[in-house]
Known about the structure:
The radius of gyration is 14 Å and the shape is globular. The chain is an alpha+beta fold. The protein is built from three helices and three strands, in the order E-H-H-E-E-H. A three-stranded antiparallel sheet has the order 1-2-3, with helices on both faces. Helix 1 crosses helix 2. The mean pLDDT is 76. Strand 2 and strand 3 form a beta hairpin.
Amino acid sequence: MVKLEDFNYDSAEAIVLNWVFSFILLTKLDVEDLNGLVEGWVAKGGKSVLAFNYDAVAKDLLELSTTSVLRYFPADNGRDETLVVVGNREFIEERVQKCVRSIV
């Protein structure tokens, strides 16, 4: 988690700005419920540089109607940049579109 107010972008926590290691999570879950989920999302073992097990994230999102994940992929190797949004359609339409518009 990142404190959005007074965040020091020059600090070690700047790793959250690297989209290989992070994503934007929009949710109505409380912190206690969220902590239990995120523990299962952390990649364990293997040699992947990815911090999250996205299969576990996607599986949980099937059951969560008030949670969505946004992940940004920068333009690379001639491809256009991409924003991937995974979550419940109604929640995406209600909350995520507003968030995406505020970022762009």
